[in-house]
Amino acid sequence: MEENAMIVKLDPDVLGFPDPHLGEDDGLFAIGGDLSIDRLLLAYSYGIFPWFDFRRWNDILWWCPMDRFVIFPDKIHVSHSMRTLMNKELYTVGFNDDFDGVISNCSRLRYHEVGAWLGEDMIEAYKCLHEQGFAASVEVRDKSGKLVGGLYGVTIGRNFFGESMFSLVPSASKLALIHLARFMKDNGGGLIDCQFETPHLKSMGGSHISYDEYMKYLI
């Protein structure tokens, strides 16, 4: 932990966050509050997001890493194997066709894992954001129309804050991410916030930028 780092307890009746620069090295800086639409929109506007094991924690944990892992839409990496898969036209990709189905699959596939964060309260919060036009999904379907992969996240301005993805067939989530990036590139999108680095996202063009640089895209 950084010297003088602190985690602030939030008052659910007061809409606001402390300075995330004062948090721990991993980005944890606040606890408590609520998952109201107003608080979530305020949070994501500053690169803050909730993430907590709902079985272990009664309070919400809020994170804002100073080292951000993002994908710029024009930097998305499409491997040879992905190009081959796309050329086969085995799947179709859509946007906001089945937000509930996407988030339900993301939750179901991880529900029994240690550290699972998509409990009922979180799911309901993001569904409310979607109903208000501040969360979006990408759906991948096979030729029969079955939902076989996708992703969802928060959308504010030109930026997409990725939350979770799933695949029921190989590379379906990669296909969803590629289509999202291409759509954003064609429509003046800013960045895709990946929150934390994973080998999967790094292989697709993810890179690190500082929080201060990151905030220039959010303003």
From TrEMBL:
Enzyme superclass (EC): transferase
Keywords (A to Z) from UniProt: Acyltransferase, Cytoplasm, Transferase
Pfam families with a match to the protein in the record: Leu_Phe_trans
InterPro entries: Acyl_CoA_acyltransferase (IPR016181), Leu/Phe-tRNA_Trfase (IPR004616), Leu/Phe-tRNA_Trfase_C (IPR042203), Leu/Phe-tRNA_Trfase_N (IPR042221)
Predominant cellular place of this UniProt entry's protein: cytoplasm
Presence of keyword Acyltransferase: yes
Catalysed reaction equations from the record: L-phenylalanyl-tRNA(Phe) + an N-terminal L-alpha-aminoacyl-[protein] = an N-terminal L-phenylalanyl-L-alpha-aminoacyl-[protein] + tRNA(Phe); N-terminal L-lysyl-[protein] + L-leucyl-tRNA(Leu) = N-terminal L-leucyl-L-lysyl-[protein] + tRNA(Leu) + H(+); N-terminal L-arginyl-[protein] + L-leucyl-tRNA(Leu) = N-terminal L-leucyl-L-arginyl-[protein] + tRNA(Leu) + H(+)
Superkingdom in the source lineage: Bacteria
GO molecular function: leucyl-tRNA--protein transferase activity
Gene Ontology cellular component annotations, sorted alphabetically: cytoplasm
Subcellular location: Cytoplasm
Keyword Transmembrane listed: no
GO biological process: protein catabolic process
Protein's job: Functions in the N-end rule pathway of protein degradation where it conjugates Leu, Phe and, less efficiently, Met from aminoacyl-tRNAs to the N-termini of proteins containing an N-terminal arginine or lysine.
Designated name of the protein: Leucyl/phenylalanyl-tRNA--protein transferase
Source organism of the structure: Prevotella corporis
